[in-house]
Specification:
Aspartate Aminotransferase, domain 2; 2 domains; seven-stranded mixed beta sheet; 13 strands
Length: 370
């Protein structure tokens, strides 16, 4: 039995009839751009996350960029973020005109280290951008306290964490604003690109809502007295309709991932040379397991063995941190992050995995270490 890392077709085929009806119904009604499906998705996601405003946009990267622009981030500002993250947040900071400051991870959860954040603060620091990786929230209480003491903004890249919580607060809804991605592989994924910015700040919400549509008002027209340079970053209406439906069973999908993570944790905890992610039941944290990422002293040999057994794996983001992109001007040395990327590996993790497939992964992992 082969276990692909991600079975793209299975994500559609699990409910193909419903998805087909939604897409045909939306298209045949001519609802293509900023129609009621977008409004319904924004309202549904706001209720699910527990925030006041959701602004649906074209993708997660644009959500970050619009949030930065709406917050007044500009040339001369520094934004601290983890090197252990996808490049999207760093690109957005760069395109907003500010300076990216990548910092170390914490070894117990592999997310941004609050201590590293504080050590990187300078007079030019304007904001902290924690990135909630793999479906786990960062150490937000500590990060928010650092921001309070230093008078800094907090913007959350929650692309991989829609539904994750810490201290019963939603990842993405703790700082001034947060963003999500609905790329197909995400826990809440559509069938193309889509994203959203979420916030409890009325001014940010109003500004980003205008920015996503060329500066237009709620009537979708550009007034003569427009004062915002906008762009075209609207969520595709068919993707919004798909996401409305997916929200209806999203809690079930998260629970399935948590069950799989618990099975992995139980099966692997005694294997030598492995470091596992925090378990599903971990105090104040509620993880959604966008990914199941572990570290192995024999990562490359393990990956080769799993491939021989027909089991797909991924080394996330090509196996390097943001700070290692020397061609983009970074010069930092971050040994903890470097070590992590030499050892880290993603195992198959999604809600359409069958029990037999999960068993197959477990048997192969134990056989390698046997």
């Amino acid at each position: 039995m082969n276990v692909p890392f991600f079975d793209w077709a299975a994500y559609f085929n699990e409910r193909a009839d419903q998805f087909s009806r939604i897409m045909i119904g939306t298209a045949s009604a001519g609802r293509f751009i900023l129609q009621k499906d977008v409004d319904e998705f924004e309202a549904g996601l706001a209720a699910f996350v527990g925030v006041k405003h959701v602004i649906a946009v074209a993708d997660g990267t644009n959500a970050i960029l619009l949030g930065l622009r709406a917050s007044g981030i500009k040339a001369g500002d520094e934004v601290i973020l983890p090197s252990h993250s996808f490049i999207a947040a760093a690109q957005s900071v760069h395109h907003a005109g500010a300076t990216v400051v990548p910092v170390e991870l914490a070894e117990h959860d592999w997310l941004v280290s609050p201590e590293a954040i504080e050590a990187a603060i300078t007079p030019r620091t304007r904001a902290i951008m924690p990135v909630h990786v793999n479906g786990r929230a960062c150490q937000m209480p500590a990060i928010m306290e650092i921001a309070r003491r230093h008078g800094l903004e907090v913007f959350e890249d929650s692309a991989q964490a829609a539904g994750a919580k810490v201290d019963d607060q939603p990842a993405g809804g703790i700082g001034r604003w947060g963003t999500y991605s609905f790329y197909p592989s995400k826990t809440l994924g559509c069938f193309g690109d889509a994203g959203a910015l979420v916030t409890n700040d009325d001014d940010i919400a109003e500004t980003v809502r205008a920015m996503r549509n060329h500066g237009a008002n709620r009537e979708k027209s550009i007034p003569r007295d427009v004062s915002i340079w906008g762009s075209n970053s609207r969520m595709d209406n068919i993707q919004a309709a798909i996401l409305v439906y997916k929200l209806s069973y999203y809690a079930e999908a998260i629970e399935r991932r948590r069950v799989i993570a618990a099975r992995y944790d139980e099966a692997f905890r005694d294997l030598p040379g492995l470091r596992l992610p925090p378990p599903p039941e971990d105090g104040a944290y509620f993880d959604i397991y966008q990914n199941y990422e572990l570290c192995s002293d024999r990562r490359d040999a393990l990956r080769a063995y799993l491939a021989e057994q027909g089991i797909g794996t991924i080394i996330q983001w090509g196996g390097f941190g943001i700070h290692q992109l020397r061609g983009l001007g970074f010069t930092q040395t971050l040994p903890k992050t470097d070590k992590f990327f030499r050892e880290s590996l993603l195992l198959p993790m999604n809600h359409v995995l069958t029990n037999d497939q999960v068993d197959r992964v477990i048997v192969a992992m134990r056989a390698f270490h046997g």
